[in-house]
Specification:
The chain has 15 helices and twelve strands. With 391 residues, the chain is of the alpha/beta class.
Length: 391
């Protein structure tokens, strides 16, 4: 079989499809922003924060920030987590998760994953807790919620915080609640290729704790008191002076990103149904093949389907065959974080987390986005089956 790459006919994601559905609304918002003499970002960000709060409920507080990494970092800083503290997470995610922990001066500690859900294995969690542990950070991998009942039970027994990395899980649900709604705080990403994205980076903090949200607001905007910094430009510029209450960071969400994300967020559940239809069609076409392990979706969970990830033998050869057929795939996120060169000094070599390492050798993310057509799904499935059935 030829493995010479051909032009991509079916992309892994198609952000332009999302933009096309809401282009008129985006254009109007950007025109408003660009014609404002002060280029005022506040209204756009506050409107997006209100939209996200509506998804979670009136008891929640939402804070827009520069990225998912920034959201995680600001939550940790606002909670006072830093040098001498440990945060437990998993090794099969993006480096951003561990980097944010390290940037606070805290230490990340890994536990292995469930190979079927790709999420934190609660049975491995308790053994990783030490007197220095301050928080547990489950990651809702590829859009499937982690097993929160078990994780929260362990956290309560040890008086630990739970902070959800929900960057891949906007629209996911656990026992009828939005992913991120059960923990002390959660953070989301609006990078372009996430479930919903802007044209650059963006993130959101979600929490029931008003004091935590207030501290995040202070830290995201140079340490300026929110009642002075988070107001329309005419009020801000007309005030007698700035009032800084902390040394903060420049990690605010840009108005132009909020303007792009907001109309997409209004279509979150409609597009989730489209993603579900794509996932269902993949499952119907691929079910029964002995070489393919399909993703799971337990009855008490609702998958966001940021990625549709299967496990296959001879993964790299199969992927090369799909590439040659013009079908884009991905191996997010490999190798596992503990095997990345930047963490070599930790001494966590091969065999440290066998489940995460085994999954990394076989996982393959197929095209997944709400604009994917049934015909495209069928084409991907046919190419995948042909590659697996070719010696």
């Amino acid at each position: 079989m030829s493995t010479t790459p051909s032009p991509v006919r079916i992309p892994l994601v198609d952000v332009s499809w999302q933009h096309a559905q809401v282009r008129a609304e985006i254009d109007q918002a950007i025109d408003r922003l660009l014609t404002d003499p002060a280029c005022d970002w506040v209204g756009f960000v506050q409107a997006l924060e209100a939209q996200v709060r509506d998804l979670f409920g009136a008891e929640f507080h939402t804070v827009g920030v520069q990225s998912g990494l920034a959201a995680e970092f600001l939550i940790l800083k606002a909670l006072g987590i830093g040098p001498g503290d440990e945060v437990i997470t998993v090794p099969n995610s993006d480096l951003a998760t561990t980097a944010a922990i390290s940037h606070t001066g805290a230490t990340f500690v890994f536990v292995d994953i469930d190979p079927d859900t790709f999420n934190m294995d609660p049975d491995a969690l308790e053994a990783a807790i030490t007197p220095r542990t301050r928080a547990i950070m489950p990651i809702h991998m590829y859009g499937l919620p982690a097993e929160m009942d078990a994780i929260l039970d362990i956290a309560r027994r040890h008086n630990l915080l739970v902070i959800d990395d929900a960057t891949l899980a906007m629209g996911a649900e656990y026992r009828g609640r939005p992913a991120g709604a059960l923990s002390d705080a959660a953070f989301f990403s609006f990078a372009p290729r996430k479930v919903l994205g802007g044209t650059g980076n963006g993130g959101m903090v979600v929490t029931r704790d008003p004091e935590l949200a207030h501290r995040v607001r202070i830290l995201r905007g140079y340490g300026l008191a929110p009642e002075r910094g988070d107001v329309p430009s005419f009020a801000r510029l007309g005030a007698p002076g700035a009032e800084h209450v902390a040394e903060g960071y420049n990690l605010k969400l840009d108005g132009i990103q909020a303007a792009v994300i907001a109309p997409k967020l209004a279509r979150l559940y409609d597009w989730r149904e489209r993603r579900q239809a794509v996932a269902d069609r993949y499952a119907a076409r691929l079910a029964g093949h002995p070489a393919i392990q399909l993703p799971v979706e337990p009855d008490h969970m609702r998958h966001a389907w940021r990625n549709y990830v299967v496990k296959v033998p001879r993964r790299d050869a199969v992927r090369a065959a799909l590439t040659a057929a013009g079908i884009a795939t991905s191996v997010v996120y490999t190798p596992p974080v503990h095997l990345q060169p930047v963490y070599r000094h930790l001494g966590l070599g091969p065999g440290s987390f066998p489940q995460a390492e085994a999954v990394a050798e076989t996982l393959l993310a197929l095209p997944m986005h709400p604009g994917l057509t049934p015909e495209q799904v069928d084409t991907v499935c046919a190419a995948l089956l042909a590659a697996l059935d070719t010696p």
